[in-house]
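Blinded run. Sample ID left blank on purpose so nobody reads anything into the name before looking at the predicted structure. Input follows.
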Amino acid sequence: MKHLTILIPNGQVNIASVIGSYMIINKAESCWQSDGNKPVFKIELAGLSNETSLYNNLFSVRTQKDISEISKTDLIIIPAMQPDSDYYELIKQNKPLINWVKQQYEKGSEIASICTGAFLLASTGLINKKNCSTHWVAANTFKQMFPEVNLVPEKIITDEDGIYTSGGAFSFLNYLLYLVEKYYDRRTAIHCSKIFEIDIDRISQSPFIIFVGQKNHNDELIKKTQHFIENNFSEKITFETLTADYAISRRNFDRRFKRATGNTPVEYLQRVKIEAAKKSFETTGKTVKEVMFEVGYTDSNAFRSIFKRITGLSPIQYRNKYNKGFAQVITI
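Blinded prediction complete.
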């Protein structure tokens, strides 16, 4: 198992970047292990003191270890600092931490700075002549302090020689998904994306919804139908035939199905088909038509219309966003 250290520097740490990092990596770990995989990371918070006060003492963060207790770690996350920080004072307060980060990199650790955490990273000298991103608000100050670093504040992510940096504010969430994919896999990153609804271009929650049919009800006939739909969605399903086999009227069947699941039978079938199509787009290089036929559609216009209504994206847009072969990850 690898060791991941989330640093808590002295000074005004941005608490969101600490909590966000812990939550997303922890969720990735949970997802990964639920598939029967061995743990990837043991996550620990470490710093120079047992507790650091933030936001004029409104909040505090407790560390689990002093950095001196960690002889070797595999990944270091340096959180963001508040944008109004005195960066010269910040570096002065964290000299032992900066030296420790440099030593860990020399031992083989990778380093990921978030937003203005790049000031601490740059103080190690490890990114001289390398690319680095930070919050655009702090760009001018950064350039003045670290002229030997190639600052690219327009980038959300840089990845060079085991050192990662991110853009400003909550773009670190997209950056963490990048790290999840790097250390786990694409599927785990997509899962985290959907659970936390992280997408820099989103205008809707729809692309993140993972459809799981509601089965927490006591209507056994409807449960039987749900299982039938989920196991046979690629075939032509005729609800008139089903209701005849069940010896129930179509009207009564529809009413019971909607009451139990929240969807009409047709809506349920469409959502099962589209969820299967989404997974195919995420994990294969199949064309839109191939996926369309695979999930049981023969009319391309109907497929595209239903897909966009459910996900908020066209099939091509969805494939391009979530498939490794088509997605464009912004890196250096």
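Unblinding after everyone has recorded impressions. The chain has a mean pLDDT of 91.
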